[in-house]
Design brief:
The structure holds 2 protein chains of 2 kinds.
Chain A lengths: L8 E2 L13 E4 L2 E13 L2 E13 L5 E5 L5 E6 L2 E7 L1 H10 L9 E5 L5 E5 L4 E3 H7 L4 H28 L12 E4 L5 E3 L4 E4 L6 H16 L5 H6 L1 H4 L2 H4 L25 H8 L12 H14 L3
Chain B lengths: L6 E5 L4 H11 L9 E9 L3 H31 L7 E10 L2 H12 L3 E7 L3 H7 L2 H8 L4 E7 L1
Parallel strand pairs in B: 1-2, 1-4, 2-3, 4-5
Helix pairs in contact in B: 1-2, 3-5
Classes of the chains: A alpha+beta, B alpha/beta.
């Protein structure tokens, strides 16, 4: 009879690549058995994130996500603007403490291993990603706009208020994307996950968060993104739109994304389209705070969709 | 207007636009001896990468900026400004943004006018990185804002 392999215990998580299935991470006196790695699904590809372990609390059986310290810095280029980005485990730990009672954020706590590495033990947020949810709604845009979007926007406003809460407390989410909002089972709350990215934008400390909110709103109002190539190649869906579009109709930071949705869907009210226009190449003024976006969205909800 | 007549805050750093500010100010047809000038350099809260560069780097920045302010003072004095009415200061209390620092100092010092430089920015750059001049125009109610544009 073969003997079962002895469990490997890790109190030092510095070399997170070596921590694998079946290993035990010991933190704050608790033992977590690793059951796998989280994966990131982007552009049809699946990448394991070796610093993010799926785990089970050996004592209670509760599922957890354990994020280990991983430092990387990189540059992103948006609309020709270079932005310095980096992972900041400390920031995520501080936010977890700040939002521990907030219903629109993932919850957990940051600890230290014996080498002082930041380890975040997180409760998984169960539910569907916003990105998947919107894409799964099988209906035409007009039906979606009048029947589904009002409720979606009401919930999005709550999620935006949650980002404002961070900014008011001097924190930024750092990685606002439509797959970092989870429609939580049970509460139906829109819940933000994954806030260990950080960035540096000089005079506009929350600039990238605000810009990415524009993408979330565009995705929600447009029931997906509409790009230049889609508009040009699908005349059945977009009609003569290709003949009517102008450079100012596209996103200031992603010049392939069509922002002036009212040209495509004329029933979109002007005040709602104007919100998107703030993120377009045609814009002369930009949003500087979450407060301004929330105020305009609430006006849309107040005046209705007709 | 404030108690202090003709007080000007000039925010400077080691950039082309700051040099354009000093040149512009020096060339103004005013009564330069009447002006009380505050040449200030502001420090932002250091970014993570700047913190990594350590105290030596920050010390070098201080001495570099002191030279920038001294050169600006010399240029203004050369053009007739009263040296006794030109103050220089490195504002080391770090502000989250330069605009926050200027607004705070304008209010503390009862400044009448702020002079800043502005390099040419694309719309995208203005959106992402922010524009000090726009923030000042929006936020300052009792001080004029003079923006010297450069390429």
């Amino acid at each position: 009879m073969t003997q079962p392999m002895k469990e490997r215990e890790f109190t030092d998580t510095s070399n997170f690549f070596s921590i694998d299935y079946g290993d035990i991470i010991v933190v704050d006196g608790k033992r977590y058995r690793v059951t796998g790695h989280e994966r990131e699904y982007r552009f049809g590809l699946e990448d394991p994130k070796f610093w993010v372990k799926r785990a089970v609390d050996s004592e209670t059986g509760e599922k957890k996500i354990i994020k280990l310290s991983f430092f990387e810095s990189f540059e992103i280029h948006l609309g020709g603007v270079k932005i310095n980005c980096f992972r900041n485990p400390e920031k995520e730990g501080e936010i977890l403490e700040l939002v521990k009672d907030h219903p629109h954020f993932m919850h957990g706590k940051a600890y230290r291993d014996i080498m002082g590495n930041n380890i975040r033990v997180l409760d998984p947020v169960l539910g569907q990603k916003f990105f998947i949810y919107i894409g799964s709604l099988a209906m035409d845009h007009e039906t979606y706009f009048f029947n589904s979007l009002p409720d979606i926007l009401k919930k999005l406003v709550k999620a935006l208020e949650a980002i404002r809460f961070l900014h008011v407390h001097g924190q930024k989410h750092g990685d606002i994307r439509n797959d970092h909002i989870i429609l939580e089972h049970g509460t139906a709350n829109y819940v933000w996950i994954d806030f260990d990215y950080d960035y540096y934008t000089e005079e506009n400390p929350f600039g990238l968060d605000i810009i990415e909110i524009g993408n979330i709103l565009l995705y929600a109002i447009g029931k997906g993104f509409h790009t230049m190539s889609m508009i040009r190649s699908n005349r059945d869906l977009y009609g003569d739109l290709a003949n009517r579009i102008e450079p100012g109709d596209f996103s200031i930071l992603n010049r392939r994304r069509f922002m002036n949705l009212r040209k495509l869907y004329p029933y979109i009210p002007v005040h709602m389209n104007d919100i998107l226009a703030h993120f377009s190449m045609g814009a002369e003024i930009f949003y500087e705070s979450m407060e301004e976006i929330i105020e305009d969205l609430n006006m849309c909800l107040y005046f209705g969709f007709k | 207007m404030g108690d202090r007549d003709n007080s000007i805050l000039v925010a400077l750093n080691d950039s082309v636009s700051s040099r354009a500010v000093v040149d512009f100010l020096a060339g103004l047809s005013l009564c330069p001896e009447d002006w009380h000038i505050f040449l200030l350099h502001f420090f932002r809260t250091p970014s993570a990468s700047e913190e990594l560069m350590g105290k030596k780097y920050m010390g070098e920045q201080s001495s570099k900026m002191t030279s920038v302010l001294q050169r600006a003072k010399d240029r203004l004095v050369e053009k007739g400004f009263n040296p006794d009415r030109i103050e220089m200061e490195l504002v080391k209390q770090p502000y989250q943004t330069i605009a926050d620092g200027i607004i705070d100092q304008v209010n503390k010092r009862n400044i009448n006018m702020v002079v800043i430089g502005r390099k040419k920015m694309s719309k995208a750059e203005e959106f992402v990185m922010g524009d000090i001049s726009v923030k000042l125009v929006r936020a300052l109610e009792r001080a004029a804002v003079l923006v010297v544009k450069s390429k």
